[in-house]
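Here is one record:
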Amino acid sequence: MAVPVVDAEYRNEIEKARIELQNLIVSKKYSARDLLRLAYACQFSISSAANSHIDDAGSSTSSTDAKIKTQAANNDLRTAIENIKVNHPTITYPDLYQLAGVVAVKALGGPIIEFIPGRKDSSISPNEGCLPDGKQGPKELRDIFHSIGLSEDKDIVALSAGLKLAARADSKSSGVEGPKFDNSYFVKLLKQDSGLLQLPSDKALLEDPKFHSYVLLYEKDQKAFFRDYEESHKKLSELGLPHSSFFRSTLEKGRSALEKGTLAVKNTPVAQRAVGVAVAAAVVIFSFFYLIHRRRASKHSSQQFQ
């Protein structure tokens, strides 16, 4: 599927907004880690499955408590983002939030991530999603990431470092001071840093053999980590865009349902066969409209973080 097309004027507004987001960080009024956290939270709200694993910076809270805390924590930042939106009204909110995440990674010393605009605003404001909590083991981590369309283990491991950096518990200073974007998370994991290994989600990366192999790679090779993180962050930020894996997987499920339905009625009488094919086709149509609904629900209106 084609990448969304936006005109030159829109791209020009994106670049102006990029500079304003950079200035937010340079001014030291806002943390780059908070911008990154906001971008993550937007994308994890795409899946209702992710909303059942909500936590605030790894603390043990209920979904309701975490939602309230996240909304309050994002309030000042949301106001600053809103000011940028006023300056560039044609930019959609989801584009602005994901642009903020890309800007944050670069400001923290991480890789430069390509930003593709084209997300659409919606009047639908979904239940606010947060970050995966720290209580998940390997299976639960895979379930959460798979539910939003990220199925590779390297996505989980690479983004875990970003999630850790974005955690509010680590965000004690403004601007880009404090923790930087590098492979130190994996170095500490392999040293079994007692302060780091308090959460099951951290231990899971060591206990699961497939996760562990990526931890070993990233601890030794920061370039490999940056390469994989860049790819994984880009995939995460593009969830909901027409060419994303989430979009493709939903259509693939519909196509599979049609094929199974066609095979199931192949040897039945003609009348029953026609009904069977019609039912299978209905499944595909339903899958398509469900996808459209999910895409709309995943777009973040101005009310989402209020």
The chain is about 60% helix and 0% strand. The chain has three domains: 8-51+68-128, 138-235, 268-305.
